[in-house]
DNA sequence: TTGCGTTGTAATCATCCGATTACCTAATTC
DNA sequence: GAATTAGGTAATCGGATGATTACAACGCAA
């Protein structure tokens, strides 16, 4: 019922910092960079709004840190997978690693928000750099061909979109959704579905 | 050098309406829903800001119209492709149609912006509906299997991300970008590259 | 020309948001 | 235990933004 961390009075700034970063990741992931406010982040972290901006300088720098941390997690998860059991093909190991990452929607959602802001002079640059870092990892460290890497990334982007769209919210009401999700997350469907329950006020889909 | 349409004095409201919708598509596509302002749209369309909101009621309704029009264009392009030359496989026809759509970045970018806003109570619903409409078209009208449709959509999502990220801006400076783009747009690379010149102030990528 | 509906804008409003300032209080040090 | 640093917040500011209102100019019909 209670939150995981419920400290009273003072806390080390470093601890508070990761709390705020976690909150920012969730908020930015749901609302996007421009749609989120520093006050939303502050409330989610249980601190005051001025404290958030003073810790990170600007809203933009806060988002860049969130983005950077998301990329770090992906890269390290992939590196672990690459160093894993050589019996199973590397593409499958990486796929499993990616699947594990979906447990925290915000990681992948923040990446997607950055990816579609390529026209932004500062976020766009970081998005391109981060994306190409991942591509290079697939090519050079995982030993994939350009076509294999492209195909792997394509599947990942579709998974990201499906998560961002909250398609799981319509799992119960639309058989086509079930079918598609089954194709996007082969074998893992039931597992991943448990981690993505529909929002409380899930509106039934209306056709236009 | 001059814009396509340069009418003086009065114009029929319907004509003006499509001008504003075109402008809105570009602006929303670049900045996203929350990042764009009605004033940016107004300036791009050459009208006053109050006129924009009076024509469409609210900024949200304007975005929904942009989104709806984008979906309509995709659906009709796909239906044309499905009705095309039966000699060439339908997946290839659809791929060509999708490639043609990339000529207007904003169509696909607005879709992506909507797709990552699934948590929004009104945009999210439209995003899911529109996406599933496309999926159903692939399954029922194009006769694809669930796996074929999923694979097709995956490739499309990667293409959208690559366009949104403005990866073409780094084509000249990064060989890995060239390689990846070659894998994402097989055969069509040179063709599509002509339609996506880098921004004037293209910042060279910095590694973090 | 007068009248009137359509097309459009200038001015303005209320709100929100990121950022700044000034201040407060719990620890830590000496 | 006084002094000092570190961890915070309340209050507020200036600018941006979506929306409203009131008004102006054009064009057409009688």
UniProtKB/TrEMBL annotation, chains A, B:
Record-annotated DNA-binding residue ranges = 37-56
Keywords from UniProt, A to Z, are: DNA-binding
Transmembrane segment boundaries = none
Gene Ontology MF term list: DNA-binding transcription factor activity; transcription cis-regulatory region binding
Q: Which residues form the HTH tetR-type domain?
A: 14-74
Write down what this protein is called. Transcriptional regulator, TetR family
Q: Which organism is it from?
A: Herbiconiux ginsengi
């Amino acid at each position: 019922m209670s939150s995981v961390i419920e400290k009273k009075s003072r806390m080390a700034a470093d601890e508070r910092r990761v709390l705020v970063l976690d909150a920012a990741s969730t908020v930015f992931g749901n609302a996007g960079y421009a749609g989120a406010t520093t006050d939303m982040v502050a409330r989610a972290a249980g601190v005051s709004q001025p404290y958030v901006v003073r810790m990170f300088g600007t809203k933009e720098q806060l988002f860049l840190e969130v983005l950077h941390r998301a990329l770090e997690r992906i890269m390290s998860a992939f590196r672990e997978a690459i160093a894993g059991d050589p019996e199973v093909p590397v593409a499958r190991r990486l796929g499993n690693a990616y699947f594990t990452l979906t447990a925290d929607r915000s990681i992948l959602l923040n990446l997607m928000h950055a990816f579609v802001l390529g026209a932004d002079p500062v976020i766009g640059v970081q998005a391109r750099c981060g994306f190409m870092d991942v591509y290079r990892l697939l090519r050079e460290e995982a030993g994939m061909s350009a076509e294999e890497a492209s195909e792997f990334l394509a599947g990942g982007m579709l998974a990201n979109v499906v998560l961002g769209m909250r398609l799981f919210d319509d799992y119960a009401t639309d058989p086509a959704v079930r079918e598609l999700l089954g194709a996007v997350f082969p074998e893992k469907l039931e597992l991943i579905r448990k981690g993505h329950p529909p929002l409380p006020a899930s509106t039934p889909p209306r056709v236009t």
